[in-house]
Design a protein that fits this description.
The structure holds 2 protein chains of 2 kinds. By secondary structure, chain A is mainly alpha-helical. Chain A has helices at 5-21, 32-43, 46-60, 74-87, 92-130, 133-161, 163-171, 175-187, 189-200, 206-219, 223-241, 246-256. Chain A folds into 2 domains: 5-188, no CATH class; 201-256, no CATH class. In chain A, helix 2 (32-43) packs parallel to helix 4 (74-87). Mean pLDDT of chain A is 85; it is low at 244-257. Chain B is mainly alpha-helical. Chain B has helices at residues 2-11, 25-34, 49-63, 67-77, 88-100, 105-145, 152-213, 231-239, 243-257, 262-279, and strands at 221-224, 227-230. In chain B, helix 3 (49-63) runs parallel beside helix 5, helix 5 runs antiparallel to helix 6 (105-145) and helix 5 packs across helix 7 (152-213). Chain B is flat and about 75 Å long. Residues 1-9 of chain B have low confidence and may be disordered. The chains are: A mainly alpha, B mainly alpha. Chains A and B meet through helix 2, helix 3, helix 5, helix 6 and helix 8 of A and helix 3, helix 4, helix 6, helix 7 and helix 9 of B.
Chain lengths: 257, 282
């Protein structure tokens, strides 16, 4: 089936919208099952769109962002998979295989955006100092525009140039750049935690931080379980101590004896 | 020690400590809508912090008439924050009530940090691993199960999912706020003790987050004659799994105490990532 430029633009606009929805607002119109309906309507083959979308939905079901870890991007997988299932009359599984390099590229874009926005947080700190609060708020609009724009781009390339040549464009980016940014992105929460520690960590709390670290590292305890355990200790501490200044004095008395 | 600690707590008090109740039913609704942009400026360093601030900024402006107080509050809310994007409204209600009560900022921060981790875990299990598969599975089976694919499948999925989604958000926003308002009286008398208790939970959780959220593994394999030693498995994991994430956090903590700006640390991290990948350490 031939695809018109107008249809490419419409699918690209849909990619822009769901690129935003997957991180913000979260109406979940970005799920493949919905993309199947919408792209099917745009490209004039509703049945193929619906079936491919629903099949991809079952594939995507387990692939959700858990605890900040990004799975293969099924938003791009859905939109490219459904498009090529209709354009090239491919079965859903083959159509998804075409989408995989673009899902990886989209993942690279997401990593890039999440990395690039880290230094902006320090601009935000400075703006807070200067009282430019609305400028800080507008960083969020910039972020959404980036989310949408990158997904539109990654969708537009294969639809306009054809999957094969678009793939060579995507693959011309050196692997070590995307890989290196991915590694840096994985390390970066350390800076956020270090800032919290700088403010919150007093000597009496060091033991709790280490205990939390050890419980997760060696025993694989969930964060919820860990928090409940922390709450148990905090509750005991809260009620056992009674007043806040009194116990310190008591300790001193005991020390005197 | 006790004296310097008391001063520190005071420095985190608001200058204007008169409680200022500005929240109405409508403003809770508007905060729910603003919280939809929680992850708009998501980044690896502070994660949802700036989007979180976006949600409560208009409310903070109404609460804090003293410009210095507003500044201090905004800066505190720009610190690291990450939780589940639906369940965030519970924390939002709670924190807004505390801001209205002009709680000490150490207490507010500690409550934020103590609640974000567990709610993140509950949210993942409840929304992504339970409700999403159920509704999406229902929609997919309507499409695939019939002889002719049924376009009502995706539509039904969207309707069911979003009823759950927004019921959760609005319910939690109000529940969080009411919980906060009720707790304020106790908090006022017990500021220091509550801050202490929340810090215990908070730092236990931060310790766990360091182990679970920072991804740092080396792919380096040393060849000695015929023997190959994969550094990660044979050396670092043998000493302690997650050793590198812990060490890197402590390094960042140390450098920050040496007055390295976080911006420098970000570029250092990017440099380490790129160089490491190029020469094959990662």
């Amino acid at each position: 089936m031939d695809i018109t430029f107008g249809q490419i633009i419409l699918v690209t606009i849909w990619a822009f919208i769901i690129g935003i929805d997957q991180f913000n607002i979260l109406l979940h119109i970005h799920r493949p099952i919905v993309t199947g309906l919408v792209v099917g309507l745009i490209l004039g083959d509703l049945n193929t769109g619906l079936i491919t979308g629903a099949t991809l939905e079952l594939v995507a079901m387990g692939m959700v962002p858990l605890a900040g870890a990004q799975p293969p991007n099924m938003v791009i997988g859905g939109i490219i998979g459904v498009s090529f299932a209709i354009i090239s009359k491919l079965p859903p599984e083959t159509a998804v295989a075409i989408a995989i390099p673009f899902a990886i590229a989209a993942q690279g874009c997401v990593t890039l955006i999440f990395t690039a926005f880290s230094p902006l947080m320090h601009t935000a700190d400075r703006w807070a100092e200067e009282g430019r609060f609305d400028s800080i708020a507008s960083l969020n609009y910039l972020g959404m525009a980036c989310h949408g724009a990158f997904f539109a781009l990654v969708t537009f390339l294969p639809l306009y140039f054809g999957a094969a040549s678009a793939q060579s464009i995507v693959e011309s980016v050196p692997a070590w750049i995307l890989g290196g940014l991915g590694v840096a992105g994985g390390m970066m929460p350390a800076i956020g935690f270090a800032m919290l520690l700088k403010i919150m960590l007093k000597k009496e709390y060091v033991a709790f931080m280490l205990a939390g670290f050890i419980l997760v590292t060696y025993f694989g305890i969930s964060i919820l379980g860990l928090a409940v355990l922390g709450a148990c200790i905090a509750l005991y501490d809260y009620y056992a101590k009674g007043g806040q200044e009194a116990p310190k004095k008591e300790v001193r008395h005991h020390g005197g004896i | 020690m006790a004296e310097s600690e008391a001063r520190r707590i005071d420095a985190e008090d608001y200058r204007d400590r008169t409680p200022n109740k500005v929240t109405t039913k409508n403003s809770l609704v508007s905060m729910v809508f603003r919280s939809l942009l929680l992850q708009a400026s998501f980044n690896y360093e502070r994660m949802q912090a700036c989007g979180w601030l976006y949600g409560i900024l208009p409310t903070l402006k109404k609460i804090h008439k003293d410009p210095e107080d507003l500044k201090a509050s905004v800066k505190m809310h720009l610190e690291f924050f990450n939780t589940h994007p639906f369940l965030v409204n519970f924390i939002m209600g709670l924190i807004v009530a505390m801001e209205e009560g002009k709680e000490n900022r150490n207490t507010i921060r500690a409550v934020k940090v103590a609640t974000m981790g567990p709610l993140g875990g509950i949210g993942d299990a409840l929304c992504w691993l339970t409700f999403l598969p159920i509704t999406a599975g229902l929609g997919a089976s309507m499409v695939l199960g019939a002889a002719e694919p049924n376009p009502a499948g995706p539509v039904l999925f969207l309707i069911l999912f979003n009823i759950f989604h927004f019921a959760l958000r609005f319910g939690l926003m109000r529940y969080g706020y009411n919980t906060g308002v009720k707790a304020i009286a106790t908090m006022k008398e017990q500021t220091k003790r509550i801050s202490h208790a929340a810090s215990i939970i908070g730092l236990t959780v931060v310790g766990g987050l360091i182990a679970s959220m920072i991804k740092l593994k080396v792919a380096w394999v040393i060849t000695v004659g015929q023997a190959t030693v994969p550094l990660q498995e044979k050396v670092f994991d043998a000493v302690m799994p997650n050793l590198l994430p812990l060490l890197y956090t402590l390094l960042m903590f140390y450098l920050m105490k040496k007055n390295y700006s976080p911006t420098k640390l970000i570029f250092l991290t990017i440099l380490v990532g790129l160089a490491g990948k190029l020469i094959g350490i990662f």
